[in-house]
Design brief:
Length: 127
């Protein structure tokens, strides 16, 4: 992402605490450097709990949902991909529990050791 694109996503985000400001700075750096996708989501939820106007994160939420996904893997190979829907969870923990429940109850995989991780979509990286 370019600095102007990051500025546009975050221009209305005003944290109310120093911890929120740290999340905002970390997120800005992650977006500029195509940093770790999971850390971007962690910063999003950290900011969500720190803002007086959580709606200010709507452009960022839409961007993350368009560019990130959850990879489901077992034995070192990808077996499924889940969409990222950040508006359906109040915090990172509930998002992760929902993803785990989706894999546990809505899918059928032979390997009992399933791993989940956030990643950038292939089209987002090459675009």
């Amino acid at each position: 992402m370019t600095p102007n694109q990051v500025q546009e996503l975050l221009k209305t985000v005003t944290p109310s605490t120093s911890e929120g400001a740290d999340f905002l700075l970390d997120l800005r750096e992650l977006l500029l450097s195509d940093g770790h996708a999971g850390r971007c989501v962690r910063c999003f939820f950290g900011l969500l709990g720190d803002l007086r106007q959580p709606g200010d994160l709507k452009p960022l939420r839409h961007w993350l949902e368009r560019h990130l996904e959850v990879e489901v893997s077992a034995g070192g190979r990808e077996i499924d991909v889940l969409p990222v829907r950040l508006d359906q969870a109040a915090d990172l923990e509930s998002f992760c529990h929902r993803a785990i429940d989706t894999v546990r109850f809505d899918r059928s995989f032979e390997d009992p050791r399933i791993a989940l991780r956030f990643r950038y979509k292939e089209t987002a990286v090459t675009a």
